[in-house]
Amino acid sequence: MPHSICMVSDFFHPNAGGVESHVYQLSQCLVERGHRVVVVTHAYGDRAGIRYLTNGLRVYYLPLRPMYNQATAPTLFHSLALLRCVFIREHVTVVHAHSAFSSLAHDALFHAASFGLASIFTDHSLFGFADVSSVLTNALLRASLGGATRAICVSHTGRENTALRAAMPPGRISVIPNAVDATRFTPGPPTGNPDSTCHDRAHLPRSVDRRCAGVTVVIISRLVYRKGVDLLAGVLAQLAATRSDLNFVIGGEGPKRIVLEELREQHCLHDRVTLLGALDHRQVRDVLVGGDIFLNTSLTEAFCMAIVEAASCGLQVVSTHVGGVPEVLPPDLLTLCKPTVRDLCAGVIAAADRLLAGKAPDRATTHARVRDFYDWRDVASRTEKVSNDDSSQNDN
Hints:
Layout: E1 4-8, H1 18-32, E2 36-42, E3 49-52, E4 58-62, E5 66-68, E6 71-72, H2 77-89, E7 94-98, H3 103-115, E8 118-123, H4 132-144, E9 150-153, H5 156-166, E10 173-175, E11 215-220, H6 229-242, E12 246-251, H7 257-267, E13 273-277, H8 281-289, E14 293-296, H9 305-312, E15 316-320, E16 334-337, H10 341-356, H11 363-373, H12 376-395
Parallel strand pairs: 1-2, 1-7, 2-4, 7-8, 8-9, 9-10, 11-12, 11-14, 12-13, 14-15, 15-16
Antiparallel strand pairs: 3-4, 5-6
Helix pairs in contact: 1-12, 2-3, 3-4, 6-7, 6-10
């Protein structure tokens, strides 16, 4: 039975990130399967009101202002009238909220329960239990999920974490992983430059176009604490001092950027460490194919879309052994390291040595394997089954 689904999250385009990509791709595939889908988020600058994306996907940019890290203020009342209007106008039957960091998602779950609508919550992150931020967020999650009949997590580790944090029966939590649009993340020349050489570095931003020798390590991440930026700084300092054949390209923006800028100044690494700043999602693939190794230093991660995108482009992936990361790729495509400077350096050096010795897997073969692992249409099909179960329970 076709549903009218309302996707709600503070995190959506034009912002770039894993949640944003997940909501967009899932919405497009559900539209393809015959469902009516609208997305609700807050205004981004002058982007307010109703906008239309591919396949007529309608997006409501509500006149709400973000308070911190692109999330709106955590209150129920400022969104009630706006969400009520959307629910009625779009004849919504299922409310699908995304991310525990999103205050708007929590609001939508509360209001869906008051309207008697079926509701689903997808958790994209892992939280602890001891620090003040986690205690408050977990308390809010327990309250908001009280009216939700189903939840979805992107990994089995995330499922266990959500069940404990939200005091939710594990039987009500499904595991549906993220996916990657393999047609957009392919090995080979960068977009619009079929004749580029030297591992396709010629089409990277001008500040990256500098050499063909050596191995390029790519890092694309939000530059925040939980992404391990302080750990990354230690890794860069040690690798730069011990391996002159390694160069680093870092894409992303955040409050921890200053840590990397100070490192580059202190060790005079301007010719080896390039900070690209915020990247448009369309630029990510071109940056990835210009590299050889992808490095992820996250301190906590439920899934990590970035390493799937990098592997789809054929890169060697080195990552911290945290959260749901070990579930994402098979061992021969993923080098797992303890979240320490010493272990991560050893992992990057081992990957670099494999590349220089010609023992790394073929990029096209790696891409084909990742393409078979994850597919958004499969994710949409499994999400549709959860929506059907959720609606039937709600009717009962």
